[in-house]
Specification:
about 80 residues, mainly alpha, about 0% strand
Amino acid sequence: MGRETTRTILNVPHRYMVFTVPQELRNIFFQDRRKLNELSNQVAKVVQYYYRRTNKSKKYEVGVITVIQYVGRDL
């Protein structure tokens, strides 16, 4: 991707959020990794719901990209 394309794509207001799975729940996701996908979907729904409630003017559509990052060998 060229530098000009990157500027065009990222030239929008954006927020960066991190959701962390507490250590006490990590074993649940280790045993059934499909639950990570469901967690990702639910996080996206919560973010979209929040922005719809706080942006009454509806001037924009909220897009959400979720990424699951594995840190350490435990996950």
